[in-house]
Amino acid sequence: MATRLGLPNLGLGLGLRSQHFEHILKKNPAVDWFEVISENFMDSHGRPRHILHQIAERYPVVMHGVSLSIGSTDPLNLDYLKSLKQLAAEVQPVWISDHLCWTGVLTTNSHDLLPLPLNDESLKHVCNRINQVQDYLERPLIVENPSTYAAFNNSTLPEWEFLRIMTEETGCGLLLDVNNVYVSSFNNDFDPVEYIKGIPHDKIVQMHLAGHQNCGNYIIDTHDREVNSQVWKLFQLAYQLANEASVLLEWDGNIPSFDIYHSELLKSKQYMDETFIGVDNEVRFMDKEQVSNPLNLFEMNKFI
Ligand SMILES: [Fe+2]
């Protein structure tokens, strides 16, 4: 039985994007909840924050951060945490999330979600910092698995095992980004199904879905298109295992009209009830120009 830290299932949600402010305020669309990027509102006391207050009066809202830098060796940024807590006091989010990553060091912010080596030392470091953050915010932190494009030689734990111990040690929750699992598995050559089966399902508070770009021998987590069919299949499995987790579709580039964005989210319903039948690996390291006959194609597929 999923406990999800006592947090509610909010249903199907969308990321709040400024392009859709007017539509939402005028039309009150039938979306279950919205996720906001915390940093887009923390330092703004003008129109965006005023609009956020109006939306938070009508819909459940969750705050999703990109700059906590929980894995960095810099001290935690207390000014950032103060501003985050202030926004939370105003908006009353159902929960607050950020990523298992580091975004900078020596006070420089790379504005990127950078991967960590996954070993006992980094696990202890991250757990200490999550505990500090949770003490300060006076609520559990919900931590998201990042998309990764590289792995470290000194990693000794698979990411799903790292996440499991992290939740046990700190009591934090998980935001399972199914697209990120798929992207990372393709780029770093692990089995996404093993990952989904290996994480602690009762700690999954929320899931993310998003589109990505397959560049042939690597995948970029672009959030600029519809969800890939293999990610939908993986979502089927994840949703079955993480019973009653809230679901959110991210879309950050080439943002479509609100109605198109919403209709892509609603596709998730058809996958929630279907039985998982497996994920096909996308073709990797294949340049069609270099494949001269069907035999080569067959031979390559055997090894993918
Ligand atoms: Fe995500």
UniProtKB/TrEMBL annotation:
SUPFAM superfamilies to which the protein is assigned, alphabetical: Xylose isomerase-like
Listed Pfam families: MbnB_TglH_ChrH
Domain of life: Bacteria
NCBIfam families in UniProt: PRK05409.1
Protein name (Swiss-Prot/TrEMBL): Uncharacterized protein
Organism: Flavobacterium bizetiae
